[in-house]
Specification:
- By secondary structure, the protein is α/β, with parallel strands linked by helices.
- Helices cover 36% and strands 20% of the residues.
- It is built from 22 helices and 27 strands.
- β16 (416-423) and β17 form a beta hairpin.
- α11 (329-346) packs across α12 and α12 packs across α14.
- The protein starts with 11 loop residues before the first strand and ends with a helix.
Length: 662
């Protein structure tokens, strides 16, 4: 049962009657729960297919459901948004699901999807739900090794992809015998015949022809999905770089949806409704992007997708006029930088007026006021209109957002900005900031479907007895959590306790109001500003395999979008490499020291270029390749940065190189 307590008071409370456990806090629940029972579902919803039916009933069958901007010329220019009704969308995904059955798929089969955000993505998702296939999202940036692992591990039977992916998937077909079919979006069947000439290992079908086949020869679903059925397997990076597939059941998604809607009904969350229009920008392969999309769907709102060109995102936003936008800090940082740079360039009275208006609104934020009767119309209205003029909710997730950027968004857009914390295993956010809490630095309280607690990590100096607030590893529990990694029982045992708590690997503290703050990581995995997970040991291992690298330390700041690497080079091999590049002569090589080489401005540039080529050749993605490096002559042993077992002491290394990493 929920009740509204209101005001800036407790955001979460200790579980009533919970018995103390050594080196753990008591579990914390959302402050709206007054009987200690977590919310697990919304009555009448037994699957994600049901969420679509609920949204259609609220909005009306002929109302607009999903939108897109058609490309009208070879330059990538787009026409205005076009919309697909709820009924027509339903008809299309039912036809598509029958087409999949004609391609040999059976209930329970794994279907990959390797597309950018689009109506085709959503049609594929719901086609899978309708026939009880299991959807496996594949990031388009995945390297061959990760793709091969996922296809092999899941026994994937078909992949929905773009024509640009045909070649690499065909190359993998010899080692992925389960994969029999590709369904290609954006190409006609005649074009595919040419593209697939000589590619006999796979049956290749166009997306449109698959839909048409299902329309001509429908195959009724054998059974509609139920809560306990697997809906999707979402892969996330492990600390070694190996992907782990989180098995997410319909019940897990339904619990998350129920938690957010319960918070909405209690007045602590944005009021999702049929009036909403969401820009589907965050990748649908990402749990946060999918969860928000399903929240809009179940509420009867509309969802539309941008063209996929980041340079044209603002243009798409202006044309769409969304009420909801979900992004990552990197996007919001760029918006902030562009706006403030433009203001600075104007100078004079215009710049002074903006700063005065901004400072006024900044002061009002402390009193809980997002809008201003004058400055919103005179100063900030043009900026809001560039983003469509109707934004009511901005959601930031996947990485920490700076207090300055939070303040900027609230002042300039006069709308609610919500930050959450979660992982793939928790279906996106498991804690969120409450709608009236504008104090930065925290990631809020558990959703009503979740509870959290801290467990001491004494070896890292974090304990639940710390003052003024307990600190420790964040553990989560609730019906929203995917409880296993597909075909990886050892990884499952490591991540989940016997009584069902998920060990996040993050270090947090819970403040006096019951809000979670993330302060460190227990393991080495971290995120960059764009929300991408980084496994530094894996990257370091790739680089230390290069002949010029003796030791490597890779660091990332979650408020930055790039990595920094500290490299201890092999002196002799570095000298030979530089000679081969014509940077130093043989005579100079005989008398120059390693310290002098590391201090030479040309040398780091040559090394970073070489390592970028090396990293790409070894399947590192672009964001995994450091954009800055520092060469150092002192070994990690001499700097006391290694443990007795020769493992890197990361916190010590971070402190040692803090000036370089800043």
């Amino acid at each position: 049962m929920l009740h509204r307590t209101g005001g800036a008071q407790q955001c979460s409370i200790e579980l009533p009657g919970a018995q103390p456990v050594s080196q753990e806090t008591k579990p914390y629940l959302n402050h709206n729960i007054d009987n200690g029972r977590l919310i697990s579902h919304t009555p009448g919803l037994n699957s994600l297919y049901d969420t679509f039916l609920r949204g259609r009933a609220l909005a009306g069958r002929s109302s607009a459901a999903f939108g897109y901007r058609p490309i009208i010329d070879e330059l990538g220019n787009a026409g205005p948004y076009e919309w697909v009704s709820w009924d027509f969308f339903h008809e299309r995904f039912v036809n598509l699901s029958s087409g999949f059955r004609h391609h040999g798929l059976q209930p329970g089969d794994k279907v990959g999807i390797m597309l950018g955000n689009s109506i085709e993505w959503m049609l594929t998702e719901y086609a899978c739900y309708y026939q009880c296939f299991v959807l496996v999202p594949l990031y388009e940036s995945l390297g061959p090794g990760s793709l091969e692992q996922i296809i092999q591990e899941t026994g994937m039977r078909a992949i929905v992809c773009g024509s640009k992916h045909i070649s690499i998937l065909h190359e993998l077909s010899e080692t992925t015998p389960s994969l029999r079919s590709l369904v290609v979006s954006g190409a006609s069947q005649s074009e595919l015949i040419q593209l697939s000439n000589g590619l006999s290992a796979l049956r290749i079908h166009s997306f449109d022809s698959t839909e048409e086949l299902g329309a001509r020869h429908p195959i009724e679903t054998e059974k509609l999905p139920v809560a306990d059925d697997a809906a999707t397997i979402v892969y996330t990076s492990g600390t070694s770089g190996r992907q782990k597939g989180v098995v997410i059941r319909h019940a897990n998604f339904l619990a998350s949806i129920a938690g957010v809607l319960a918070l909405r009904d209690a007045g602590d969350m944005y009021n999702f409704s049929t009036e909403d229009c969401s820009m589907g920008f965050l990748p649908l392969a990402h749990c946060l992007g999918r969860l928000v999309t399903h929240l809009v769907i179940v509420s009867g709102g509309r969802t539309a997708f941008p063209r996929g060109d980041p340079a044209k995102l603002i243009e798409d936003l202006k044309d769409l006029q969304p009420t909801i936008f979900v992004g990552v800090p990197r996007i919001f940082n760029r918006i902030q930088d562009k706006v403030l740079s433009a203001v600075k360039m104007k100078g004079g009275l215009s710049s002074a007026l903006f700063q005065y208006a901004y400072n006024t609104k900044k002061g009002n934020l402390g009193r809980g006021q997002l809008s201003h009767w004058l400055w919103d119309r005179v100063v900030f209205k043009p900026l809001r209109e560039k983003f469509g003029g109707k934004l009511n909710l901005i959601v930031s997730g996947s990485a920490p957002i700076s207090p300055e950027t939070l303040e900027f968004l609230r002042c300039c857009f006069s709308c609610s900005v919500v930050e959450g914390y979660g992982l793939t295993e928790t279906i996106g956010p498991t804690t969120v900031t409450l709608i009236d809490d504008i104090e930065p630095g925290n990631v809020g309280a558990p959703l009503p479907c979740a509870m959290m607690k801290l467990r001491s990590v004494a070896e890292l100096g974090y304990t639940v007895d710390d003052k003024p607030c307990p600190r420790g590893e964040v553990l989560m529990k609730g019906g929203h959590i995917g409880g296993e990694y597909y075909c990886q029982p050892e990884a499952t045992r490591e991540a989940f306790t016997d009584d069902g708590w998920f060990c996040t690997g993050d270090i947090g503290t819970i403040d006096a109001r019951g809000r979670l703050h993330i302060i460190d990581r227990k393991n080495n995995l971290f995120k960059l500003a764009q929300g991408e997970f980084i496994a530094p040991e894996h990257i370091e291992n790739v680089f230390t395999d290069h002949f010029i690298v003796d030791q490597a330390f890779v660091y990332g700041n979650p408020l930055q979008s790039y990595l920094v690497a500290i490299i201890v080079p092999d002196e002799k091999l570095l000298t030979m490499f530089l000679q081969s590049k014509g940077i130093i002569s043989q005579q100079a090589a005989e008398r120059i020291s390693l310290e002098d080489l590391c201090a030479n401005d040309q040398v780091p540039q040559a090394v970073i270029s070489e390592l970028a080529i090396w990293g790409k050749a070894h399947s590192l993605r672009g964001f995994e390749i450091p954009k800055r490096i520092r060469l150092v002559a002192t070994s990690f042993e001499d700097a006391d940065l290694l443990t007795p077992t020769l493992k890197l002491k990361r916190r010590a290394a971070q402190a040692y190189f803090k000036d370089t990493l800043a």
